[in-house]
Amino acid sequence: LNDTHAKMASLFLSRSVVLAARVGQPRALSSVANSFDTVICGGAAAGSSAAYFLATMRNTPNPSILVVEKDSSYAKSATALCAASFRTQFSTPENIRMSLFGAHFFKNVNKYLAFGDHTVDLQVHEHGYLFLGTDDNIEGVKNLKENIETQRAEGAAIATLTPSELSAKYPWLTTSDLQLASLGLRDEGWLDAYSLLQGFKARAQSLGVTYVTAKVVGLARDAGTGAVTGVTLDNGQTIHAQHVVNASGTSGDTVSAMAGIRLPVEPRKRCIFVFRSEVLPDFPMLIDTTGVYVRPDGPAGQYLCGVSPPAERDPDAADDFEVDHDLFTETIWPALASRVQAFEGLRVTSSWAGHYAFNTADHNLIIGRVEGVPNFYLVNGCSGHGLMHSPASGRAIAELIHSGRYQTIDLTRFEYARLAARKFIVEKNVI
User: Fold this and answer.
1) How many CB atoms lie within 10 A of CB 409?
2) Which tens digits make up the pLDDT trace of 87-128?
3) Do the bridges between strand 158-161 and strand 178-184 make them parallel or antiparallel, or are there none, so unpaired?
4) What is the mean pLDDT of each run of 10 residues along the chain (431 residues)?
5) Could you give phi then psi for residue 199, rounded to 5 degrees?
């Protein structure tokens, strides 16, 4: 495992360069106008989704939208380094609704993002998440049952499986300690995150959205109204704006602080390991009772896995992208081998570390407007489900800017006001 992180970093960077070349290079700062209607800080999945949806709503050759992205290679963005999976099995209704739209978007992506002879292949694999509930965790099984009721009420297709049903469906699975499981029957699976980002960005650019590579270092505000009047870039240039969106991922708190708003959002490191093992039929996205997850990835017999570390090993990660190999040997591998006997002899082939933009208050998205800063919009703190919810969150931001209200999924409960009032909405199903 000693050199796998370096190899994967090189692979991600090379893929990022190919991605940037295919969707069009960002504009040179010297050629960019000094005023736009909307400036979006952050050009990964959430920011590019917002740019795309807003451009379609404006339906004009010049939608006056600028996306400012500090790293056009996306080599260390959460979008680039995530497990690229999507699910409807959440505990919060709004998350389920966003997931349902996201799954529809992914499965019908070319109805949204295709143009000319440009099409998008997300390589969608629609296989359900399998959440396991054990006899040893009564509270966990209770939550699982409550979550299933909520998910079904929102229109998600979720099956419950007993241990005997699990053994019949998945003969390779150890079920002796299990009491119940939930399985997504549709609208769950995994995809190519790079292709999704490429699709959003390319379509946005085709609609007239401007991208620049720069870092936002300041926000100018009107002393009377509190509104943000422009963004200052790291080259000293100021871009005037009527609307400013903070889609800065793990830097979300840094950008919001420039407007006098503090967000409980920190970068938290998440390590992903790829291994080879026996080919097992009908393998889902398996969520073990320990929190360890594993799913197929690429060619037959290859799998991807990870786990959220315990709180005492989960600090603010800042610029830490070192793979925690002890996490695999001490936590992940024992859980995998215990749950799937075939994984006792697995062989790790690669690994990497990325970051969650983690909302430490309640693990949920922070979106929408903030009192006192009327034209500043947040889409931050997705806590690991930003990619799967990027179609819905981007559309929601576009609706707010274009019409002043949510028109499809009402995300009012996820706005910043809940944090200020300490009325947290805790998402129980964070992986």
Assistant:
1) 18
2) 999 999 999 999 999 999 999 999 999 999 999 999 999 999
3) antiparallel
4) 43 42 67 93 98 97 96 93 97 97 98 98 97 84 94 98 97 96 98 96 97 97 96 96 97 97 97 98 96 97 97 92 97 98 98 96 96 97 96 98 98 97 92 86
5) -65, -45
| Secondary structure string (H, E, C) spanning 318-360 | CCCCCCCHHHHHHHHHHHHHHHEHHHHHCEEEEEEEEEEEEEC
Burial class (CB in 10 A: 0-12, 13-18, 19+), 338: middle
**How far is residue 405's CA from residue 47's CA, in Å, rounded to a whole number?**
18
Cα 336 off chain centre by: 25
Cβ–Cβ under 8 Å, residues 229 and 238: no
DSSP 305: E
How far apart CA 52 and CA 38 sit, in angstroms, is 12
Instruction: Single out the residue of 418, 378, 381, 419 nearest to residue 401, CA to CA.
Output: 378
Cβ atoms of 396 and 408 within 8 Å: the answer is yes
In whole angstroms, what is the distance from residue 424 CA to residue 151 CA?
A: 20
Nearest by Cα to 178 from 164, 199, 192? 164
Are 85 and 285 in contact, with CB atoms under 8 Å apart? yes
SS3 317: coil
Say how many residues make up the chain.
431
- Give me 320's structure tokens: 């830490």
d(CA 411, CA 414): 5
pLDDT recorded at residue 19: 40
Residues facing residue 354 across a β-bridge: 270
pTM of the model: 0.93
Q: Are strands 65-69 and 210-213 parallel, antiparallel or unpaired?
A: parallel
Tens of pLDDT, residue by residue over 292-334, are: 999 999 999 999 999 999 999 999 998 999 999 999 999 999 9
Q: How far apart are the first and last CA of the chain?
A: 24
C-alpha torsion sign, points 137, 138, 139, 140: positive
Report DSSP state, residue 137.
-
Beta bridge partners of 109: none
Burial class (CB within 10 angstroms; exposed 0-12, middle 13-18, buried 19+) of 250: buried
Dihedral, CA of residue 51, residue 394, residue 386 and residue 84, to nearest 10: -70
Task: Return d(Cα 176, Cα 159) in angstroms, integer.
Answer: 20
Residues 123, 195: contact at Cβ < 8 Å? yes
